[in-house]
Amino acid sequence: MISTNGGAFARLVAGGAAAATALAGFTIGLAAPAHAAVNISGSLVDATGNYVQGQVYVYTADGTPVAYDYTNNGTFDFALEDGAYKLEFNGFDHADEWYRDKADEATADVITVAGAGQVLAPWTVESLPYVTGAITAPSGRPVSGGSVEVYDAATGNQVGEEYTDPKGGFRLTSSLPSVKLRFSGYDPRTGDQLASEFYMDKGTLAAADAVAPTSAGANVGTVVLAPGGSIAGRVTSEAGAPVYRAQACSNLGGCDWTDANGYYLIEGVDTGEHVVSFNDPIGDYAGELYNNVPLTDQAAATRVAVAPGQAVVNIDAALAAAPVVAPVGVDLSGTVRDELGNMGVGYEVLVYDAPADARTREVVARTYSNRSGAYHFTELDRLAGKTQFKVLVDGGDGPREEGDFARRDTWSGNKVGYETASVITAAPQVLDFTLPVAGGISGAVTTEAGGPAESGYAAFTDADNNLVGSEATEADGTYDNRALWAGDYTVMFGAYLHVPEWWKDALPEGATKVTVKPGQVVTGISGVLTKEVKAIERPEVVGNAWVGKTLSLDAGRWNTQARSKISYEWLVGNTVVATGPTLKLTKKNLGDKVTGRVTNDAGFAQGQAITKATFKVGYQPKVKAKVTKKSAAITLKVKPLKAKKVKATVTVFEIVGTKKNGDDKLKKLGKGKIKKGTGKVTFKKALGKGKHKLVFTVKGKGKVGSGDIEKKIKLKR
Questions:
Q1: What is the pTM of this model?
Q2: Which band of pLDDT confidence, cut at 50, 70 and 90, is reported for residue 35?
Q3: Are 636 and 650 in contact (CB under 8 A)?
Q4: How does strand 111-113 pair with strand 169-173?
Q5: In 402-424, which positions are buried (b, 16+ CB within 10 angstroms) versus exposed (e)?
Q6: What's the alpha-carbon Rg for the chain, to the nearest Å?
Q7: Residues forming beta bridges with residue 195, ordered by sequence position
Q8: Spatial distance between the Cα atoms of 208 and 204, rounded to a whole number of angstroms
Q9: Each residue's pLDDT tens digit, 131-181
Q10: Which of 4, 254, 266, 634 would suit a FRET pair with 59, their CA atoms being 20 to 30 Å apart?
């Protein structure tokens, strides 16, 4: 809101020590009552029946404050002892008043508490004059946290500011007869500055339409902010040659460097009149303001008017050459290049001292490489107490131009850090630098439903498993990152309310590496995301379905699970018989086939997967086997069953190795039947002499349990 209410706290402060003591009661709570308190409750609404926010204060008949409540949802509750009380309301967007509809404490209604709780009649309070509306981006998405500046329409003075809620809406109160409003904010998807504007679609305060706040609310509707404006042009010498790495800046915010052809583009600029300046940090040209005005004369500069979302072009400058001063007594000079052989134009070169404690180092001199890549220092021998130095060429934070690649910071000796950099002295010498050049990865992040993913991005992890960068997608779903140093990377794709994945369509451990080389872009590294949470590897029941044994439930492998909540259920048929990751089998389970169901709750969606059913639950079989080269004579004992009731089929396997996933690799030797507890399995191929690991797979009948039983045997001949 624009105005500040005094209310109860203002009167308490004015009341001196006694009031201050009463105020402390609000903070630390009431003393325990002599008699049981009862509940007094009520609600606050406006004229249209909407709940009202604010604070309700309770006073005794003599004006002593005893309690307060914040009516966040329009209701209030107080535990009060018997007595007479008065209530005061202090609102945010509503007029202050006393219960009920009274202007002051003297005329306020008295509420009598006499041993019984009560619900007060709804208390209607009057809305202050206000203005409502909403702000959206061109896409129609609400602008949360957008600014609404409020100006007195009569004087032009700013009198307040409100911010939009998550739905882009705003409500501002004002007692002024009319106000003017200025709207601004950021695109909720890209984060780019949107063009500010005055109501309605006006570029200046003078031209803005006035709005009259009313008690019913003056609704200005939905304000659609255009993309930020831009200022573009070309910087040349007076002879018309393009000036590379000059800087164009607006006094209202935003700068850009000129490219090799002298062009610049300042994007996302605010609505209004800009003073544009042109400077050459390299020092070959004298700076000026638009249009051919000295930097010292802001008043004379030609203003560049930018309407909401307008692209202003041809804001050009022809810079005069700066006086050439020949260097005298050069201590240090050299040339800056990159590893592709390009001259390093306009790179900042910084000289640090070299103290015993590297943490106290500081910059003692700086310059820029010129348009031939050369730099020099002349003052190093005149720095009192400084005799040793380390030099840095600042490669910048990323690519310097659209479509270019990042260059890496490089220290003296072409090292990558201060600690390993070569030390130099103030003697005349040449020190050249070669800057490493980044490579890039590009592609797109789309969805199974088609089209770009909302808030899509690609994230890059290096060979040491460090996250080294990420790139948000453009409106069409594409991304392009050109700041990755040569090496191998894995790429993860993500988006709002979608399951992340790694290239190519893989889980992290199966991601395909992308090799990046200097000055090259690896294209086509794309992902198609799904909202479906699903098991990549099916959950599995671990253990044998034998009475008295405990089964466990392996959750399997999901396309997302790092931050998920995994829950487990055990089923017989379609009936849930237990929950949790384990299940103890009892006699009650005899004959049941058990399955496990795993639920993966990822927050934005959840998925379920069911295991294969176990064999029928039975009693545990014990295998005794007399193994020769060609067969196995088997005795099967099953407590508490008698031998005549023990029937089963037994398949014998030999373990001959290990699979890639860690499971045993099995070779089938033969299969036979067990009757009355005994049977024989004849092998298809004779076993050789020596040690063998055999697996007896029992498939029981009746109450005989099924499962795998492993045994080691040794054949002597």
A1: 0.75
A2: low
A3: yes
A4: unpaired
A5: eeebbbbbbbbebeeeeeebeeb
A6: 40
A7: none
A8: 6
A9: 999 999 998 999 999 999 999 999 999 999 999 999 999 999 998 999 999
A10: 4
